Amino acid sequence: MVDQTVSEFGQIDILINNANINFAFKPFTEMNWEEFSYKLNNEMKAAFHLCQEVVPLMEKQGGGKIVLISSGLSRTPAQGFIAHGTAKAALSTFAKYLAQESGPKNIVTNIVSPRLVLTDATKDQPSEMHDMLRSLTPLQRIAKPENIAGAILSMAADWNNHINAYIPVNGGIDMS
Q1: What is the DSSP letter of 45?
Q2: Which pLDDT tens digit goes with each residue over 20-32?
Q3: Model pTM?
Q4: Which domains does the chain have, with CATH numbers?
């Protein structure tokens, strides 16, 4: 994938990692190690290998931007999401280390961290869950894909070259 992108476009200026590996949605006491580690290992494996291929290319070209998509569940737990939240917390920590190591080489690394986003994958979740999250959010609404895309575009913009951060895109739910 990386070789094909470089072959077609000449270089990679921006890497957006939005891997979301399926996971077991259940309480910790009902989960086995295989279910837990599947999410953790595969989520990190995708980010690790992509970044390991792209960072040296960005170094050679004088810099670049990396945006990793995490989850608000990496910071604020919810019942049944232990595998997902733990994997995304690992991804967020990975990004901090990557930012520290790659920053001096003019590579900017950011985490965009949405909570619930209305997508095909989430549309069938119970309406009670959507209502509860909406009520906890000062904006009283749930994110749409374009809200997350806006944050990613902002991180990828040429003018935005001094932010190495965790960017919550969650309507303020972290404040509750």
Answers
A1: H
A2: 788 888 999 999 9
A3: 0.88
A4: 2-117+146-170 (3.40.50.720)
